[in-house]
Amino acid sequence: MRKAIIALALAAATIAPVSAHPHVFIDLSLSFEFDGERCLGFWQEWSFDPVFSAQIRYDFALPDAGPLSRAQQDELYEGAFINLRRYGFYTLLRRGDKRTSPKAVTRFGAELRGDRVVYRFYLPLDESYSGGFNVAIFDTTYYSAIRYVGEPRFTQAREGGAAPRFAVQADRRFPVYYNPQAGAQDMTTYTKPGPGILTVYPDEIAVRF
């Protein structure tokens, strides 16, 4: 079934055949929620490129325009999104020298905006992130290229606490390795350099008070 193709990890192929990464392009915006000086979590909004969006609409029989029903959103969640837990939802969280990825997210939704399919979901954080942290949204398989769009936003859940500060920067102590010539079916995550493997330092958003 065509839906099984996407379930591999966003998709196993785009409309046109390609031989090198990346294959999918995502515009990303982030919105952080705070309770005083504690970050409760943050929203991610992914806007897919028009070509991949057309593939999703075709594979899931989505309309060309208009709202998506809850059933259609649930089908996208099960058939095209939840498999991304294998890749930490492309989310790299860091406190000090420890980098981790979430095993679950909540409040998934999807909609159509013009010629783009848009995902929106929430990542709750526990109290250990209260002292500040770094986050990078990056596909370590390099199947998808992700671009931050706009400045990080934030909301304050209650009065009190200083406004958070955001800085976008790469930290060369924390590289990611990838194979730029991997085929369309390759979703390998590399943990060390090797022949043909390149190194990249993802831009992180540093959240501080």
Characterization of the model:
The structure is a single chain. With 209 residues, this protein is mainly beta. Helix content is 13%, strand content 38%. The chain is built from 3 helices and 13 strands, in the order αββααβββββββββββ. It has helices at residues 2-7, 50-59, 70-81; strands at residues 24-35, 38-48, 91-95, 98-100, 106-113, 116-124, 133-137, 144-148, 153-156, 165-170, 176-178, 198-200, 203-208. The strands form 3 sheets. Strands 1, 2, 5, 6, 8 and 9 form a 6-stranded mixed beta sheet that branches. The chain has a 5-stranded antiparallel beta sheet with strand order 4-3-7-13-10, with no helix packed on it. A hairpin with a 2-residue loop joins strand 5 and strand 6 (116-124).
In short:
With 209 residues, the protein is mainly β. The chain has helices spanning 2-7, 50-59, 70-81; strands spanning 24-35, 38-48, 91-95, 98-100, 106-113, 116-124, 133-137, 144-148, 153-156, 165-170, 176-178, 198-200, 203-208. A hairpin with a 2-residue loop joins β3 (91-95) and β4.
Give a count of the beta strands, DSSP E runs of length 2 or more. Answer: 13
Q: Give the topology string: H per helix, E per strand.
A: HEEHHEEEEEEEEEEE
| Span of the ends, CA to CA | 49 Å
The main pleated sheet reads as: 6 strands, mixed
Tell me the overall shape. Answer: globular
Structural class: mainly beta
Q: Give the integer mean of the pLDDT values.
A: 86
| Unreliable stretches | 1-19
**What percent of residues are in strands?**
35-45%
As a whole number of angstroms, the C-alpha radius of gyration is 18 Å
- Please estimate the helix content: 10-25%
Counted by DSSP, the helix tally is 3
